[in-house]
Design goal:
Blueprint (H helix, E strand, L loop, with lengths): L3 H19 E9 L5 E4 L6 E3 L7 E4 H26 L6 H22 L5 E3 L6 E10 L7 H7 L1
Parallel strand pairs: 4-5
Antiparallel strand pairs: 1-2, 1-6, 2-3, 3-4
């Protein structure tokens, strides 16, 4: 049967990458001494719009690692409990190939976006924020700012 090590690199890591990129949370915030911004990340916001140029982002490394660890622990616990108490089944090769391929594509596209030379990287977020609104964010969903939403109504 499958060892937990095999489950980790064939199921848990690809599911962690896919879910981390596809399902997250956006935060519409008012940072102190900065313009209204949209931050993303769950459970902590690890990314924010850059304020120095229009197409830039700010990334916060500590929050990013905490978020990745959170997703990994959720998937590890879920798959471990299923494997331990419900179903001990051999890994399907097609599902493994699809999961690894999808996670690789998502990872490469994310690396392409993050490698923008205008992006800024900080060890942790150094500014305080006041949260105005939060909602779940899916990769296919466009975020409309609160002030734009009020103008359309």
């Amino acid at each position: 049967m499958n060892s937990i090590k095999e489950l980790t690199y064939k199921r848990i890591i690809p599911l962690t990458i896919i879910s981390f990129i596809v399902i997250t949370k956006w935060w519409y915030v008012l940072p102190i001494d900065a313009p209204h911004s949209i931050m993303t990340g769950f459970p902590l916001a690890y990314s924010c719009e850059g304020w120095h140029t229009s197409m830039s982002e700010q990334y916060f490394i500590m929050e990013f690692f905490i978020d990745i660890l959170f997703y990994f622990i959720i998937w590890f616990s879920l798959i471990y409990l299923i494997h331990r108490y419900l179903i001990k089944k051999k890994l399907n090769r097609i599902i493994t190939i699809v999961l690894i391929s999808l996670s690789g594509i998502f990872l490469l596209l994310s690396i392409l976006i993050v490698s923008n030379p205008d992006n800024l990287f900080y060890l942790k977020r150094e500014f305080e924020t006041e949260t105005i609104e939060t909602q779940p964010k899916f990769i296919w969903k466009h975020i409309i700012r609160s002030e734009n939403r009020k103008q359309k109504e």
